[in-house]
Structure formats: structure tokens, C-alpha cells
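User: For a reading group we're discussing how well predicted structures match intuition. Take Major facilitator superfamily (MFS) profile domain-containing protein. Before you show the prediction, I'll give you the sequence so everyone sees exactly what went in.
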Amino acid sequence: MTAGAMIGAVISGRMTDFIGRRLTLWILDIFYIVGWLAIIFAEGAWLLDLGRLSLGIGFGLTCYVGPAYLAEIIPKDIRGLLMSISQSMTGYGASLTFVIGSFVTWRSLAIIGCIPSLLLLLALFFIPESPRWLDYIENQRLQQNSDDNVLNLFRRKYLHIVIVGVGLMVVQASGGLYGFMFYMSEIFDSAGISSTLGFILVAVLQIPLIVLSAALIDKFGRRTLLMASATGQCLGCLLTGLSYFLQELDWWKEASPILALIGVLVYMGSYAFGMGGIPWIVVSEIFPINVKGSAGTLCNLVSSFCSWVVSYTFNYSFSWSPAGTFFIYAGICGFGVVFIAKLVPETKGRTLEEIHASLTRIMQ
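Assistant: Thanks. Here is the predicted 3D structure of Major facilitator superfamily (MFS) profile domain-containing protein, as C-alpha cells, for the group to look at:
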């Protein structure tokens, strides 16, 4: 899936700028439907892999075009709230999947997973194209020039926002999410906790925190919530790592499973509160439309690549040292707190034009 997301990331920016936001949404939804159908009718591993690859491509496209489209059509005063609600759907979907997946077979779960994709197919008949994209295309036709080239991103006036965008993607994707999410059953089982109970608790905790984040984002701002979220993730990794460290030393056996459970809950809850969706909101806000395609592709590719690295290496690092694995993730999350505090700008309550003007002026 993460390999597919990298493919989707590579084509996301150019595709979205060339054919528009609306048509890209059509295409990514087809990838979702094909992916779920492949899994539903799979009789062997190759079709399961194909389905996961197709879902990954759809997700890679979604990560860019969803926030980009919403940022361009939503008024500044409610942009954070509505984008946060939209981004939180990933958390709701994961929570719902954790609960339903505890009681049904994987094939039944795939059938349920296909339903939102079919609903989106119907909804796409009723949404308009982004007016900012239409203006951009008209200007490009008249002027016949563009800064939308990956190399142009490294010009002095864009350097700061590229560092912010890429840095947020690295922190978000490298802090251990796919280790926790893809291998949560193994974490709970190895810590002596019922995985079914753990999944349900994670799902129940995530939902109110997602709602709280959406309610607070336009009041306290993106930066504050990101710092709180990264701090919570760091604490969750430390608690999970400490649980395994105590197991290795054969100390305090009674507390070790409880620490692991608390650590996973703190981490997943903190991720849902901010780092899950807000980095994509910030990335969609800080890049001017003339470089948004290339910038979105770069940030999306970095996110997908880091996610792939975490999901691919987790088994190996976990076999090497369970405690060490989570302590490494804690260090990355701690770095994220410092990075956000020092470099990430606040964008609440400002139009996209105001944000772009202030950020590009910093480097001129």
C-alpha cells in the first residue's frame, strides 16, 4: 500500500494541475473501487497485493488533492474547522475499521470498505471545480509561463516553505504511525493484552479527540495543536518503549502490559488530535498556486516514502529491540516538537494570498 502511495504521490501534483481537482477526484475514486474489488474477489496473494497497490495509489492522490481542493474553496474564517473535519475522516474510518474488523472477516471488511468509495462516485456529480484552479489555468493560458517546476522550489523565495512542508511530512510519517497501526495486534499480543480490547479502546479514544481538534483548530491555531500532538506522541512512544524495557529486564511484570496499553492509546490519541490531519492542512495553505503542484508532489512523495520505510523496517527493528524501536520513534517525535516550534508558521484566520505573501517575503 505504501508503495502504491508513492506512485500516487509522484503523479498527484502534475495530474491535479493538468486535469483539475475535480477530475483527479474521479480518477482516485476509481483506484479505490478497483482496489477494494480486487481484495473482495481475491483467491490468492497476487490479487490481494494488486488491491493494496491500487488503494495505495488512490490514497497517494487523495493526500494531495483533498486538502488542496478544500483550501481553495473554503473561506478563511472556517477553513481550519472544515478542513480538520474532512481530514479527521481518515481517523474516523480507521476507528470504525478497528471496531468492525474485530467482529467480521477480512473479506466482509473489504465489502464494507468499498461502500464509501461508491458513495463518493455519486457525490462527485455535484461538486464544482476549484475557482482558484480555473483562474490559474486561465492565467497560464494568457501568460504561457509557470514556476511550477520542482527545481524552482529550491529558489530562495520558496526555500522556507519547502523546508516547512517537507519537514512536517518527515515528522508525521517517521514518528512510528505505521509501526503502531499495521502491527498493533502484535504489539498488544506481545505485551499480553487482548488485541480486540485494544482495538476497541483505540477507536473509542480517537473519535472525541478528533472532534476536539476540529473544534479548537481555528481558536488556538495549527501550530499549537501540532506541538501538543507531537508531544503526546513522544510520550506514547516512551511509555510503550518503557513497557518492553521492563519486560527485557524482567522487572515490574504486572505494570508492563498496562504501560504498553497506555502508551498505544496516548500515541494514537495524540496522532488523531493533530499530526494526523493538520500537516496536510498546513501544506495545502502555505504553497502558492503557481508552485502548488510540484510542492504537493514533493511533500506527498516524502510522506509516502517515510511511511514505507517505517512499515518495511518495523519488523526488523522490533526483532532487534522492541524497546529501542519505540525510543527511536520517541526521539523523532521530540525532534518534531522543536521543528514545529522553531519553523512552522501560524496560518489561522488568514487568506491564502496573505499567507503566501508573508512567507515568500521572508526569504526575499
